[in-house]
Amino acid sequence: MANETTLHAKARVALADPAGMLDRLCDHFVSHGTVTRQPGGARLEGPFGAVELEAGAGALRIAIASPNESYLFVVKSSVAEHLVEFAEGETITLGWQGDAAGESRIPYFREVVVRRARDITPAMRRVTLACDDPGYFATGGLHVRVLIPPRGRPPVWPSVGPDSRVIWPDGDDVLAKRTYTIRAIDHARGELDIDVVLHDDSPGSIWAREAKPGDRVGLLGPGGGDVVPADWYLLCGDETALPAIARIAENLPSSARASIVIEVADAAERQEIASDAAIEVTWLHRDSAPAGSTELLLQAVRDIALPEQGAPFVFAGCEQAAARAIRKHLRAEKQLPKDRHLVAAYWRRGHADVHDHGE
Ligand SMILES: Cc1cc2nc3c(=O)[nH]c(=O)nc-3n(C[C@H](O)[C@H](O)[C@H](O)COP(=O)(O)OP(=O)(O)OC[C@H]3O[C@@H](n4cnc5c(N)ncnc54)[C@H](O)[C@@H]3O)c2cc1C
Q1: Can you tell me which atom of ligand 1 is nearest the CA of 244?
Q2: What's the CA-to-centroid distance between 202 and ligand 1, angstroms?
Q3: N or C, fewer C-beta in 10 Å, the chain?
């Protein structure tokens, strides 16, 4: 991370108890990254950059180094949120200096417009979005947060406060936020495809069912879902991870081998999976069982032996309980190191919008 660092921001925050705030920030951050304490200060390092904190007389000094504009924004807004949260009613005045000072937009936000939508299987609808800079979504991760405005109202998008905290619209303008995978990018046509599972009268399903040309949505991202180079892959998941699995498979090199296991409702939900790699695809059918109620995926993962030679990587995306069971099995039974698997809860039975990426 240190070598990639290019952008910097700093701030000085007047506080009654800077040392207490330093402790609270460090205690909180320890579960998100590395905390190195020194007398009167600390260095916090995480995936989005590094933060130096120095508690002086009546003020906390903050210096951030991040590799790009989006990461810098994530760190600034997160530091600001936590300062306010831990201030216990004390007023926080935070003015950032340095790169992107005075930034009034979220750098990883884009407004896109529905161009068309069609069913690709009985329970999966493809929404095609027109986008000015599709290349922007080609790197940095597979997924986006789709911001869905209330039906019949012009969208009010999130903005950025002077302290870099995100200001979300509320009341009648509140946005539904759901995570989806960008299934495909058509650079020439300026289009992104998102494949949405239709399962309920839920915000995501309703959006996809009713999407018509001209509808606007916001996208935050992209991020997450990257697989690391390996000789052999196991890509598994239910239909919510089918778009991610299909996109990952399409990008595997011809030298790779992959076992692909996908749980769907029934045979009508199968899709073609294309890859240059040597792939073996297994479809698991729930038949009449509800989504998220079976151990089909866990059983399939149990039954697959890791190759004796070559570096493995396991990707899994599914209902939360299944994801936890698969992660536990991979670590405890298959002894797979943390950097050789990415197992994520894509949804949680009985709960709206799980956002647990697992790692
Ligand atoms: C990284 C990531 C990538 C994802 N990519 C995709 C994708 O490309 N396509 C996609 O369709 N989904 C994807 N998902 C899953 C999707 O975000 C969730 O299914 C989300 O809950 C859907 O929102 P909703 O408004 O339809 O339902 P919610 O309002 O979130 O939930 C309403 C109810 O429906 C249930 N529910 C949610 N999802 C399902 C489901 N699939 N089947 C049955 N019941 C369900 C919930 O348990 C809840 O009871 C992804 C999730 C993550 C974390």
Answers
A1: 8
A2: 9
A3: C
Band of pLDDT at residue 4, cut at 50, 70 and 90: low
Residue 95 CB contacts under 8 Å (≥ 6 apart), including other chains: 11, 162, 163
Average pLDDT on 309-319 reads 97
What CA–CA distances, in Å, run from 82 to 78, 106, 219? 6, 18, 24
DSSP label of 37? E
Cα–Cα distance, 274 to 277 (Å, whole number): 9
Bridge-based pairing state of the strands 341-347 and 312-319:
parallel
10-21 pLDDT tens trace? 999 999 999 999
**Distance of CA 199 from the midpoint of ligand 1 (Å):** 8
- Name all domains of the chain by residue range, CATH numbers in brackets: 2-98 (3.30.310.50), 109-223 (2.40.30.10), 232-347 (3.40.50.80)
Q: Which residues line ligand 1 (CB under 6 A)?
A: 143, 178-181, 195-197, 199-200, 202-205, 224, 240, 243, 291, 344, 346-353
Lowest mean pLDDT among 3-7, 132-136, 327-331: 3-7
Q: What is the pLDDT of residue 104?
A: 87
- Identify the pLDDT of residue 2: 41
> Which atom of ligand 1 is nearest the CA belonging to 357?
53
With CA atoms as reference, report the closest residue to 192 among 259, 103, 115.
Answer: 115
The pLDDT of residue 144 is above 60: yes
Residue of 208, 205, 59, 69 lying closest to 128 (CA atoms): 208
Sign of CA dihedral 323, 328, 334, 337: positive
The rounded distance, in Å, linking the Cα atoms of 65 and 99 is 10
**Is the peptide bond between 222 and the residue preceding it cis, with omega within 30 degrees of 0?**
yes
